[in-house]
Amino acid sequence: MNLYRDAWIPVRGSNAEFQQISLKRLLCQDEAWQISMPRDDMELACLQLLISLVQVAFTPADEKEWRQKMRSLLNEPTFDAGVAPLLDWFDLVHPVHPFMQTLGFESEKALPIQKLLIGLPEGHNHSFFNQPGEVKNLGAATAAISLFNQAVNSPGVSSGLEVGIRKAASVTLISANNLREMVWRNVLHQTTLHELYPERDSEDVEPPNWVKAATATEYAANMGLLRGLFWQPKCIQLVQANIKGGCDLLQTEEPFLFTGFKWKKQSRKLEGFWLHPHTPSRLKIDKDKPVNVYLSFTNKNPSWEHTLNYIMERASGEIGGRAAPVVTQWKRLGDAINLNLIVGGYCRKKSNEEKIENRRHELYSIGEGWQSQPGQDAIRRTIEDAIFVKSILRAKVHDVAKVIGLSKLKPKMQRRKEVPEDQNYLGMPDKAEEFFYQRTEGMIQDWFREMTRSERRSEQIKFIASLSKICLKIFEEVTEPYYQNPELIRTVALAKLSLNSELKKMKESIAQ
Prior knowledge:
Layout: E1 7-12, E2 18-22, H1 23-28, E3 34-35, H2 40-57, H3 63-71, H4 76-83, E4 111-112, H5 140-153, E5 171-174, H6 179-185, H7 190-196, E6 217-219, H8 225-229, E7 235-240, E8 245-246, E9 253-254, E10 258-264, E11 269-271, E12 281-286, E13 289-294, H9 307-311, E14 320-322, H10 325-331, E15 339-349, E16 352-366, H11 373-408, H12 411-416, H13 428-450, H14 457-479, H15 489-511
Parallel strand pairs: 6-11
Antiparallel strand pairs: 1-2, 1-3, 4-10, 5-15, 7-10, 8-9, 12-13, 12-14, 15-16
Helix pairs in contact: 2-5, 3-6, 11-13, 11-14, 11-15, 13-14, 14-15
């Protein structure tokens, strides 16, 4: 299966009928499609793959040509000419250098193909909702998407394997009403590319590392666009079955199936930071040196806390978060009044970079004014206000939990500083914070969506009032089991009074 030539893209049209189409049909025919897969993370990976394929084959010369490509269809001769030099590199079953695979190495045994799907329960992977062995066969399309997703978006498939360039960082892409327009909105033109990679010749197309083997250590500063977008950190070969059958993910009949993959440990390290077009990043100071890092999800904090980093444009060398290049390019488009942003990625614990704990796939809408400094200041205030209100809630719940803990300690235990058996109270602040994030997510997203260029102090007061109401309700819920305890009635009442007072002061300070 060739990614540039064959019909592999899983889509549904206006009639909701599932089918697989070619990239040529997507770009050259006036049809409205949406990617259709049973998992949202695989849909996002498919979109990233399509954007990357179009980026390296049809990079617009400048903004004018980029706008024209978003509005118009490619003609078939232009498509054929653009993909001709790349066809052999993007063939999943090429006899010499198959897509994102390495041939000619020995491996003791093949791993089950389900392990290639991030988050499914095989080996180190963690189950989101699937069972071990649920996916035994993949068709060519899902195998290609899974290879790409594993290389680009996963922190690691197993111990000893190198992680990708982005190390499970978040992805931010510009949304659109149909797939063709969405792809073009996230393709960078040459002017933007020259700003991002001034040392690289924009016309220089370096082969991917499954064609031109990687050295033991490569340097990001020397890496071209194609090699970076399709960097394969792992040494993998798919195991093809000798029978026809059904793909367990798409439920489609396939001419050939993949049942597993082989791998070996091989160092493919990339030194330095490569600015990925689809990923927000942050410049920070570490040990007195500036260090660039990608923004990634943790299991606990919501993505709205990073909203400013998703849209911020900073000068080179300026400390702080900055938007993905595709968002920055869209921001510079004068008629991009509203921003509809796809945010996705995998969540993991900081202490365990290989284990995926969760996944996210969200659509953020930010209203008129998001490009301007006043608009970004309004977003900053919203985030800071929400975080501050949450910190007040957590502090007051913590005060109650601390007193509850002391009340449960017998005098002898207090002297020995032993912990009582009932430790439910210790989780009260975390539970309150979890409830806060859950119950404010929709409200905060609504605020971003309805934002305008004008600074609305009265609306900000209403926003704080709504947050305060939620906080008081959460406080009552997490402390309710202790209301009837004579030793704790006063503590709970005083903490609630203090919470109410601090929230009121916050509203009054905004009104002044």
